[in-house]
Design a protein that fits this description.
By secondary structure, the chain is mainly α. Helices cover about 60% and strands about 0% of the residues. The longest helix has 20 residues. Pfam families: Retrotran_gag_2.
Length: about 140
């Protein structure tokens, strides 16, 4: 079977722990482009028994591609989070539970960061302080 070469016009930063929201949107587009998004949203049903060998191969190939695409676009330090699985949907959910801003773990980090914010009128203006605060907010 001849599958298309791996080339993507989409270039975006790997998941680094602080950019989950933008990474998630970019990854969604890449997975859609590669025909894999349906595995994440569970619209892709398993291949029926009567499927041809070619159909089964293409289904398995897309399912594996879903996982490998996610795997290749996260920082190496986070690979142990998803290394135990080869399922794209499971990997997606693991990353979501660790980095989604609404998860309990993520909220705890955001609360800590919020309480670390301190305005120093000697070293900065209110505008600089607000800009720094917004930058932290946008990187979450």
């Amino acid at each position: 079977m001849n599958m298309p070469a791996e080339s993507s016009p989409f270039a975006f930063p790997k998941l680094d722990g602080s950019n989950y929201t933008s990474w998630k949107e970019n990854m969604k587009v890449v997975l859609m482009d590669r025909g894999c998004w349906s595995f994440i949203i569970e619209e892709d049903k398993p291949c029926p028994e009567q499927a041809t060998e070619k159909e089964k191969f293409e289904y398995d190939w897309r399912k594996q591609r879903c996982y490998t695409t996610i795997y290749q676009d996260i920082e190496r330090k986070f690979l142990p989070l998803i290394r135990h699985t080869t399922d794209g949907k499971e990997a997606w959910n693991i990353l979501k539970s660790n980095f989604e801003p609404t998860s309990k773990a993520r909220l705890a980090v955001l609360i800590d960061e919020f309480f670390e914010l301190k305005f120093n009128p000697v070293e900065e203006t209110i505008g600089i302080f607000l800009q720094t605060s917004r930058r932290k907010e946008n990187s979450s």
